[in-house]
Amino acid sequence: MKESDNERLQHAKTTALLSVGTFLEFFDLFLYVHMAQIINPVFFPQGASGSWLLGNFALLSTFMFRPIGALIFGRIGDVLGRKITVIVTTMMSGIACVTMAALPGYESIGMSAQVLMILCRVIQGMSAMGEVTGAEIYLLELTKPPRRYFYIAMVASATGLGGLFALATCNFILKFGLSWRYAFAFGSLIAVTGGVARTALREAPEFTREKMIMLRNKSSSLTKTMTTSNKVNIRSFMWLLAINAVLPMMFCLRCIHIPETLQNRFGFSTQDVINCNLAVSTVEVIVDVALACIVLIISPIKIVKYRAHIFLALVLILPPILEYCPYSSVIILLQMLVTIFYLCGSPATPIFYSHFPTLKRFTVVAFAFAFATAASWALGTVVLDPLKARFGAFGLWAILIPLYILFALAVVYFERLEKKRDTASAGSNE
């Protein structure tokens, strides 16, 4: 069923409102990551006891506390609604931004500065789960295919745009010697604006309908049937974990491990690496927007599968090139190609999410994303370093190839579920 012009306009406005919050979350997340070398000395100076440990904890706490945030805001989203969740999480992120921008350093208030900074990072990590997942699920339950895939892909592209602006901001501040606090003040302004604007959203109609049916049938003979229909398929949950697990590893590969080769083998400076990563992030945003448009004419699962096949070919040639190629330009080109064809569930995520019951969808999807990405960050930042120390760039195969296999199997699994549903739907319409 096609959208009317009025519906299309309303859905476009909703997508824009949701994209603001998603942009903010990833802007804040990567702003701290890229500017840790500037921020940490202010709150975790070398002379203070435990500063090294606390500084690293502040950096990683965003990912460590994501599963807790997923359980909290997933439950809120499934009980109270999608709208209130995306509003609350945006405002929480804004409060954290304001606090970080105005927070005195260690020299002024001592350990209190460290505790408050870590608390702000924890809030950012927890609220991110309600923000990103809430935006995607909201649009899933508001719109219909094929434009559903376009709207959700545009929200997903806001994550890359947030990372790009964070990196560009870091580059600008380092180049001109400005205070990092201005960046977080800017983030808080976006959060407040986005949070207020989102109060105009209406609740996702699919959630509202399912909630009313549940309340109507709660004490009727249909309760058992209703409970069965809301049961989560464990196999689907496990395969969703596999799809989400690739994301942090893809970031580490593109923006950490390949740039390390440019630094170690070709003497690239920190500024050179930032410039390369800026180019990579720009390419990522362009590709995301292009895919959002292509998905209107090509099946999103086909797009995901084609990209995965090309990525496997790149992975097979990646270590030899990183180890032996004498030209930095070839490695930069390879970095760009990995950015274009990296493993990612988008733009097929609405298909994956739709196979979970509406009234448990938020909790399941958010927790799967949070748990899988936290585990993958550990692989990309902790486990992979010893492998590279022993096997060089060839150590990448030990993680990338198994991740590809799991990802490919997961996509095939959901593709089969989708075909079964389409067949059943076609049979019921006859």
Automatic annotation (TrEMBL):
Domain Major facilitator superfamily (MFS) profile: 14-420
Residues annotated as transmembrane: 12-33, 53-72, 84-103, 149-174, 180-201, 237-259, 279-299, 306-322, 328-352, 364-384, 396-414
GO cellular component: plasma membrane
Top-level lineage group: Bacteria
Listed GO MF terms: transmembrane transporter activity
Subcellular location: Cell inner membrane
Topology relative to the membrane: Multi-pass membrane protein
Entry keyword set: Cell membrane, Membrane, Transmembrane, Transmembrane helix, Transport
Coiled coil: none
Pfam families, alphabetized: MFS_1
Listed InterPro entries: MFS (IPR011701), MFS_dom (IPR020846), MFS_trans_sf (IPR036259)
Protein name: MHS family MFS transporter
Natural source organism: Candidatus Sneabacter namystus
